[in-house]
Design goal:
This protein has about 120 residues and is α+β, with helices and mostly antiparallel strands. It has six helices and four strands; from the N terminus they run βαβααααββα. It is globular and about 40 Å long. The chain starts with a strand and ends with a helix. Belongs to the ArsC family.
Length: about 120
């Protein structure tokens, strides 16, 4: 399982602590230094079953500075995925990629269910 995080994000740190406390093995990846590629995002989005908006860090500075709240609705999925691939800080974190699930953000109940706990 891969977990893409930003170490300065308190939610990411809480999520990693939760994984450690539950003895769940994961591979950590720094989302800012090694942002997801277009190909990865396209694959994860398809696998997730989530609306594409769930992959955007809607509370982030870059999202707000770019005025994406209004712009996304006029963009194709492909354009949105390409935009997400330009900067890891645009991506909702933590982003978890398991064998049979993809999760954005940290919600304990959702994570427990996805990881069959």
């Amino acid at each position: 399982m891969k977990v893409l995080v930003y170490r300065k994000c308190s939610t990411c740190m809480k999520a990693l602590k939760w994984l450690d406390e539950h003895n769940i093995n994961y591979e950590e990846r720094a989302i800012k230094e090694e942002n997801p590629t277009y190909e990865e995002l396209k694959k994860w989005y398809a696998k997730s079953g989530l609306p594409l908006k769930k992959f955007f860090n809607t509370g982030g500075m870059i999202y707000k500075e770019m005025g994406l709240k209004d712009k996304l609705k006029d963009m194709s999925e492909d354009e949105q995925l390409k935009l997400l691939a330009t900067d890891g800080m645009l991506v909702k974190r933590p982003l978890v990629i398991g064998d049979d699930f993809v999760l954005t953000g940290f919600r304990e109940k959702e994570w427990s269910e996805a990881m069959h706990m």
